[in-house]
Structure formats: structure tokens, C-alpha cells
Design brief:
Blueprint lengths: L1 H11 L3 H4 L3 E6 L2 E7 L4 H20 L9 E2 L2 E2 L1 H11 L9 H7 L11 E5 L4 E9 L5 E6 L3 E6 L9 E5 L10
Antiparallel strand pairs: 1-2, 3-4, 5-6, 5-9, 6-7, 7-8
Length: about 180
């Protein structure tokens, strides 16, 4: 199967139409999965719009009280707030713990706003937030057990040494019933 895909790529690389498009290879565990054409960067623009939508919803959650196991603006824990924000923004996501989210979404070495950031408090991954700023000042939205859903700087002494992973997720819209 891999040989067939490789031969198709060699053949297609000479096609004028394919040369005019950006082709992304989606790789999962070093196995080639699919090739997705992205004419005029449409996927990149859609992702940027998705991220803006999620961050706007997350900003509206600031001040939500911390409630262990909660998933709504009445109260939410860290992973519950991620679930609630994405659901309110119109995206499909399973309700998972921070640890399971870290296993589900692929790691990235190039953090961007909208990515999930995971923290280890000494017993494995136990906290998650959504990046909303990167660079010199790295910030995240997250549910603090003492302050509720807030916007925090990650570069502070408390969070920085505990950061263990940044993961990128795809945004899949909820399909209306």
C-alpha cells in the first residue's frame, strides 16, 4: 500500500494541477494516512477562524467558578471547562480527563494559540488549559481550583516548571440532529 501511494506521488508530482496546490501528508505514528489538497490555504484560514471562535468563547467563561466534574458556566474543572468551551463554540469533543486528552491529541513543538497545554503536578498529567498567547508572554485559559476559570501567564514560577506537553487538536463541528 505504501509503495502504491509513493508511486502515485511520483506520478502526480509531474501533474501541473497538483504542482499548483499545497499538499499535506497526514502522518500518524510514521504511517502515511492520506493526502489532502489545500487550495489557496483554505484549511489554514478555517483553522485560524476556529481558533478565534474558541478563544472568544473561552474569554466569556472567565469568572466561571471551579466545580470538580463540572462542564458548564455554572461551574467546571480544568478538563470540564475545555469540554464546555469547545461545545459552546460548536465543536465536538469527548469529555475526557486531562491525562486522557494528552494521550488523544498529537504533541506539537510549535505552540500556537488554541493548542492545549498540559501540566504535571508530580503524579502525571493532571491539568489542562487552552493557550491564548505565545511568545515572550505565554498565557492560557484554565480552571483554577482557587480562582475559577481564569487567564494565567504560564511563564510564572508556578506553571512553567510543570508544563509537560502542548498538543494540537482538530476542530470538528457538532453535526445538528
Amino acid at each position: 500500500m505504501k509503495l502504491f501511494i509513493f508511486l502515485v506521488l511520483i506520478f502526480c508530482s509531474s501533474c501541473a494541477e497538483v504542482n499548483q496546490r499545497v499538499i499535506e501528508a497526514i502522518v500518524l505514528e510514521e504511517d502515511l494516512i492520506a493526502f489532502i489538497p489545500d487550495p489557496a490555504g483554505e484549511r489554514k484560514q478555517k483553522r485560524q477562524n476556529d481558533i478565534k471562535k474558541v478563544l472568544n468563547v473561552a474569554d466569556s467563561w472567565v469568572g466561571t467558578p471551579y466545580v470538580w466534574g463540572g462542564t458548564s458556566k455554572r461551574g467546571a474543572d480544568c478538563s470540564g471547562s475545555i469540554y464546555g468551551v469547545l461545545k459552546e463554540a460548536g465543536y465536538r469533543i469527548h469529555r475526557l480527563t486531562a491525562r486522557k486528552m494528552a494521550l488523544k491529541y498529537p504533541k506539537t513543538k510549535d505552540p500556537n494559540p488554541g493548542d492545549l497545554v498540559f501540566f504535571d503536578h508530580g503524579k502525571g498529567i493532571a491539568h489542562v488549559g487552552i493557550l491564548n498567547a505565545v511568545g515572550q508572554k505565554k498565557n492560557m485559559y484554565h480552571a483554577s481550583s482557587s480562582k475559577g476559570f481564569i487567564d494565567s501567564e504560564i511563564n510564572e514560577y508556578y506553571w512553567l516548571p510543570k508544563e509537560v506537553q502542548v498538543s494540537r487538536m482538530e476542530f470538528y463541528p457538532v453535526i445538528p440532529e
